[in-house]
Amino acid sequence: MQKLSIEDIISKIEAKELFHAVSSDYSFTIKIDDYVPYACAAVHNGHQFRRSLWSKCLHTEYERWYEEDPETENMVKHHPIVISGMDSRFEYDLNRDPENAIYDDAWGKQLWKEPLTAVEKAQSLEKHTNFYRVVYALIKTLEEKFGCCIVYDMHSYNWKRWDRAVPTWNLGTSNVDNERFKNSIEDWRQDLSKIKLPNDIPNTAKINDTFQGNGYFLKFITEHFDHTLVLATEVAKIYCDEESQVIFPEVVSAIRKGLKSKLPEHASNFYNIYSN
User: Fold this and answer.
1) Could you give a GO molecular-function term held by this entry (predicted)?
2) What's this model's pTM, rounded to 2 decimal places?
3) With helix as H, strand as E and coil as C, how does 47-95 read?
4) Which domains does the chain have, with CATH numbers?
């Protein structure tokens, strides 16, 4: 994996080069093994937290981990195009617009002992801006090459905090064209429900049950590109113990295996329908 500047990453994408890179500020990774009409993203995968902010933060390392989406990059790592955040959403949230990307409080608890300075905020927001410069270049290149594109926007959520039964998978579709893409959305829901999970873990998939797909990543791509569908795909944290911070590798592996077969097939069907 190379360390590359934002400009170099964008240049390689525009030239349709194959590469693995970490951004020069170590805020995200991107790999392109082939130019195909789909991409995977894990914007909340990151857990890094800038050292200069440690003493100012009221949330513990565990509290930050609890609200992040650990292992989501691992679940899609075998696909040809993957972009993944490395920084914690507690420094800046890639799934929020720039004006709201830096939290004052998080999940009912004040985040900072004292307000961040303008310089501290600017340092974080520059990384947010750079990430979206790369996202824009990537989707623009894929749309121009293929005529359409589909993006699998991978997230996870804490299912134990709900006081009702919740699905293993949730698709958030309130900000995409449901009339135009309804068949692809339903096909993806069905595909997810067929992934075999170990340990007799039940597998259900619903649309707009726990979350509605209101994230900035989805909205940014949808607003800038007319022929790209973003599927905000949330998996319940059945693959770890939310309360003890223990990952269950056999469950992560099963999800990864399921996505490795289901996802390219779904993307191919999408391309066959919408490329014309």
Assistant:
1) hydrolase activity
2) 0.96
3) CECCHHHHHHECCCHHHHHHHCCCCHHHHCCCCCEEEEECECCCCCCCC
4) 2-274 (3.40.630.40)
